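FIELD: query
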Amino acid sequence: MGSTYQLTYRSSNQDSLRDGVDSLLKAFLQSVSTYEPQSTISCFNKAERGIVMDTLFRNVLETSRKIYRITDGAFDPTVG
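FIELD: result
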């Protein structure tokens, strides 16, 4: 999402850890990246029909709604 990351760790099996991290980041990007035109959140924002909401997106959406209510709208996830 326009950023880089670096992980430093010690492990005898670095490839499996790298694959796991890459897998999690890929799932994250497919779900909630506004940079990916076919991500779940991008499709949701375009009001496309038939969106399958994965657990990550559903959690982000529910948490956003909760914070919106708690802050009386001061936190508005629809802005920006």
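FIELD: remark
The mean pLDDT is 88.
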